[in-house]
Amino acid sequence: NGFFSHPDSSICNVFYNCVSGRELEMTCVAGLHFYPETGTCVWPDMANRVGCGSNANKKLADGFQCPKDYPKADKNGQSITHPNFPHPEDCSKFYICLNGIEPRQGNCDPGLVYNEDLQRCDEPET
């Protein structure tokens, strides 16, 4: 019983949940890798799995790149380490730039939309 990595070490977003001798193939949310030590899906740099590839080009498949010029502090003067940016076409999605340079896509829970002012998912305005 437990969570196990895919046997092909280059497939890092798929893992298996085994219970009573039965396996269930599972897939991490887009952009995450399975981390065997905790049995969870985490950012690729946290999983640190060999052979998985990386975001060396710093660009997502849809072309998003973290902007070089972004606010380094919020309106309260708090440092912004991982800035967020709205998705241009889907209000339930957004981008996270880890340390301002590593792009990741985020998704709001069903029924919520990304609120750029609040920098988080929120109820849609009516």
From TrEMBL:
GO cellular component, one term: extracellular region
SUPFAM superfamilies: Invertebrate chitin-binding proteins (SSF57625)
InterPro entries: Chitin-bd_dom, Chitin-bd_dom_sf, Chitin_bind-dev_reg
Domain of life: Eukaryota
Record bears the keyword Mitochondrion: no
Protein keywords: Chitin-binding, Disulfide bond, Glycoprotein, Repeat, Signal
Domain called Chitin-binding type-2: residue spans: 1-54, 63-126
Gene3D superfamilies linked: Chitin binding domain
Pfam families (alphabetical): CBM_14
UniProt keyword Membrane, yes or no: no
GO molecular function, one term: chitin binding
Listed name of the protein: Putative obstructor-a
Organism the protein comes from: Aedes albopictus
Lineage of the species this protein comes from: Eukaryota, Metazoa, Ecdysozoa, Arthropoda, Hexapoda
